Amino acid sequence: MTQSQRDYYDVLGVPRNADETQIKKAFRKRAKELHPDTSSDPNAEEHFKELGEAYAVLSDANKRQVYDTYGHDGLKSSGGGAGYADPRSWEFMSDFADLGDIFSAFFGGGSRGRRGVGPMRGDDLRMNLKLTFMEAAFGCTKEISITHLTTCGTCSGSGAKPGTGLSTCQTCGGVGQMRQAVNTPFGQFAQVVTCPNCNGTGQVIAEPCGTCHGQRRVETTKKLSVTVPAGVDSGTRLRMTGEGDAGILGGPAGDLFIVMAVETHDFFERDGYNLMGKIPVPYALLALGGQLEIPLLKGSKQVSIPAGTQNHHTLTLQGEGIPHLQNPNYRGVLHVVLDVQVPKKLSQQEKALLQQLRDLEEAKLKPHSAKTDDQSHNSFFSKLKDVLMGQG
Ligand SMILES: [Zn+2]
Ligand SMILES: [Zn+2]
């Protein structure tokens, strides 16, 4: 709490013999001058507090008498009565309900932006950006087109036709607030509401700007070049500072958030910075071993498959995943699952060889039996039966 040492009569600008009406009038006049939206005084808030303090004392007959007799010190020592009435208190407000906007603007009674009073930050905007899997993995530059609100060039954001100014709002008489009677169980109270006509500013545009129709901003479509870093994924947000909607009355512009939407890949599946892939391999390769060509994000790599490798074996290739967003030199891991494919169509030669192979495998199961196709079939089941019956 600031205890002003300036003479209270000087603060209000009234003579020492001023009556109640004069004091009230002087306070209202001075309070309006110090309104944060119109005052150019950088110390407006300090001065307003001082004013509130002076008024609280001089409008109270008892306090005024103490002040007249003992000055500031008298008020300090009067115990409990020191200082000034809290301008946020109901009693104080009710005397000057139509100045409520001024009080709340100073003392945080409400958001100025919400009510459209004074400078207001522009809205943030959001747009989705479609990327191919490869664009997301290695980064790219994209041309985008955005539609946002920019400050109207015709009126420089004032909303008024050039050469015209503002006029006092007729609805609220220029105070920006209106009184409304509210019935409560405790009786009728006067509630202060923001004037809907001027949005609480107390002033309206006399002649609206022909370009923005008094809206201060116009919709503009603009092309932007977006640098997408390597490693982004679906849901990654890029912020473009100041590319949202323009602010009002000198308020800062909002930001543009670009949200990535990454397409899927035919072969690779992404898990963070790691990649998963499934590669079809012939049975013979796993059984005999050999070289297998593994597709990579860029190019391919020959990998040795040892003889006797099992189906669904996973090969792990370090550094072949997605580059990290913070450090593109560091890449995730590529996991490749070997997946045996059963051929749906066989050439005559393949069929003959596979039949030969099958015969050999069946011979292993029942080595003493001579077989035709039918017999081998029977022998397989008889062997199985033997095992199950515990007679093998
Ligand atoms: Zn108004
Ligand atoms: Zn305009």
Q: What is the gyration radius calculated from CA atoms?
A: 41 Å
* Portion in strands: 25-35%
Query: How many DSSP E strands?
Result: 15
Bound molecules: zinc ion
Which H/E pattern describes the elements?
Answer: HHHHHHEHEEEEEEEEEEHEEEEHH
Largest sheet: 4 strands, mixed
Strand order across the largest sheet: 10-11-15-14
Helix content: 25-40%
Give the helix/strand class: alpha+beta
Shape: elongated
- Counting DSSP H or I runs of 4 or more residues, the number of helices is 10
Low-confidence stretches: 78-116
What gap, in angstroms, lies between the N and C termini? 100 Å
Q: Mean of the pLDDT scores? A: 82
Description:
The protein has helices at 8-12, 20-33, 44-58, 61-77, 90-95, 100-107, 133-138, 283-288, 348-365, 373-389, and strands at 125-131, 140-151, 166-168, 177-184, 187-194, 203-205, 217-228, 237-240, 256-262, 268-271, 274-281, 290-295, 300-305, 314-317, 334-340. It has 392 residues and is α+β, with helices and mostly antiparallel strands. A four-stranded mixed β-sheet has the order 10-11-15-14. A three-stranded mixed β-sheet has the order 1-9-8. A two-stranded antiparallel sheet has the order 2-7. A hairpin with a 2-residue loop joins strand 10 (268-271) and strand 11. Helix 2 (20-33) packs antiparallel against helix 3. The radius of gyration is 41 Å and the shape is elongated. Residues 78-116 have low confidence and may be disordered. The structure holds zinc ion (ZN) (2 copies).
Structure described in brief:
This protein has 392 residues and is α+β, with helices and mostly antiparallel strands.
